[in-house]
Design brief:
This protein has 291 residues and is α/β, with parallel strands linked by helices. The protein has eleven helices and eleven strands. The protein is 46% helix and 17% strand. The structure holds 1,3-dihydroxyacetonephosphate. 1,3-dihydroxyacetonephosphate (13P) binds next to strand 3 and strand 11.
């Protein structure tokens, strides 16, 4: 299938009590692992690339690669730029064929966050690209975005309606107690805050910082109306762990018999299995052909 927008892929999620998994990829192999999981589960998937991963893979190569992978399968796939703070880069991604971008102006004051987000939404509209923005701020590290715990701030529900209305965004990332990266202590999610927010807006909501969130918390968020769940750091560990498990054996082979694919094939498979488990928890298994 052709790449679909975030707006399309999230349509019906809240009413039907499931969330679409948005998974960060670093290279072609983990991207393919994520798509393999979507195919296996017949689930829609969002492939997310950070600004760093985009630099690593190259902008045009990233689009060509994910577009090609999506066209080879029968599930909806959305290509999303994650946590972008560079507005020129966001615009370039929109022009070149991304079907979704996240403008992260969450560190800026409320009024500036609205103005900047609105500017990107208006730009994206011309190209049929969706836009996600964030209110509040998650702690932790997501690639190049680092927020000290002391600066992390939960989303104020009262800020939500005007933000959604004035910006015209397609999805809103909310801070309700998760953080990016692995947790030092089990996260404590603020479900009351989430409930207030869901009552104040119909805009699809996004949970960031999926790594390390207990299964029961994911399920509760989804039941309460979360539409997109971002999940990244653990995928890197799964990938590296799978490569490490076979690396010494491969390295010990005669040079003529060594093959990088012997390292990457198991890594791809391990990512697919791990992502598949999350897809089941988010409730999006079997939701590929909802229309
Ligand atoms: P984790 O890396 O904590 O899973 O968070 C991913 C994320 O929120 C990407 O935006």
């Amino acid at each position: 299938m052709s790449l679909v927008t975030l707006k399309e892929i999230l349509a019906g999620t809240r009413e039907n009590h499931y969330a679409v998994g948005a998974f960060n990829f670093s290279c072609p192999e983990d991207a393919e692992g994520i798509i393999m999981a979507g195919v296996e589960k017949q689930a829609p998937v969002i492939l997310m690339v950070s600004m760093n991963a985009l630099k690593y893979n190259g902008l045009k190569a990233t689009i060509g690669m994910i577009k090609g992978m999506a066209e080879a399968v029968d599930i909806p796939v959305c290509l999303h730029l994650d946590h972008a703070t560079d507005y020129d880069l966001i615009k370039e991604c929109i022009r070149e064929g991304f079907t979704s971008v996240m403008i992260d102006a969450s560190k800026k004051p409320y009024e500036e966050n609205i103005a900047d987000t609105k500017m990107i939404v208006e730009y994206a509209k011309e190209y049929g690209c969706s836009v996600e923005a964030e209110l509040g701020m998650l702690g932790g590290r997501e690639e190049n975005v680092v927020v000290e715990d002391s600066s992390a701030a939960m989303t104020n529900p009262e800020d939500v309606p005007r933000f959604v209305e004035e910006t015209g965004i397609d999805a809103l990332a909310v801070a309700i107690g998760t953080a990016h990266g692995f947790y030092k202590a089990e996260p404590k999610l603020d479900f009351e805050r989430l409930e207030k927010i869901t009552k104040l807006t119909d805009c699809p909501l996004v949970l960031h910082g999926g790594t390390g969130v207990p299964e029961a918390d994911f399920r509760r968020c989804v039941q309460m109306g979360m539409s997109k769940i971002n999940y990244g750091t653990a995928i890197k560990s799964v990938f590296v762990g799978a490569v490490a498990a076979v690396a010494a054996e491969e390295a010990a082979k005669e040079p003529g018999k060594q093959d990088p694919r012997n390292l990457l094939r198991p890594a791809k498979k391990a990512v697919a299995e791990h992502v598949g488990e999350k897809i089941d928890i988010y409730g999006s298994t079997g939701k590929a052909n909802k229309n």
